[in-house]
Structures are given as C-alpha cells and as structure tokens.
Design goal:
Elements lengths: L6 H29 L8 H5 L13 H18 L1
C-alpha cells in the first residue's frame, strides 16, 4: 500500500516515523530504568569502563564497531 503513494506522502510518512522511533526508544529506556531493581544495576564504572568487557578481550574490533554505529544512521538517512 505504501508503494502506491506519491513521494510527497512517503516523505511525510518517513519524517513522522523518525519521531515515532525516537519517542519509542525514549519510552523503552525510561521503562527499563524505572522497572529494574537497584540491586541488579551495575555501577557506571562497570558499564563504561573496561570491567564490563567480557573475558577482557577488548570487545568488538574498532572497525567493525564503527560500521555497526553507522548502520542506524544509514537507515534514518535512507528513509528521510
């Protein structure tokens, strides 16, 4: 059905979806933070430091992590 719409309507739809995606992402983050017990949360040093890296392997290779970071940007740019 979306394929039968003109580009004007598709552009408006895509622009609206950006705000819906941002809103649902914010809601999910808020709900997760509000419903997770304090005893199950890790301190910031564990989350953002090297202590949270599994097996102390350093995580993902830098190049692959960079490409995965661009993936969400690619979806947003290609739709709008």
């Amino acid at each position: 059905m979306l394929n039968s719409l003109s580009t004007h309507y598709l552009a408006r739809f895509a622009s609206g979806m950006v705000f819906i995606n941002l809103g649902t992402t914010a809601i999910i983050i808020i709900v997760l933070l509000a419903t997770t017990p304090r005893s199950e949360m890790h301190p910031a040093g564990y989350v953002f430091g090297s202590a949270g890296v599994v097996n102390q392997t350093g995580g993902w290779p830098t190049g692959l992590a960079f490409l995965m970071g661009l993936l969400s940007v690619q979806w947003t740019v290609s739709i709008v």
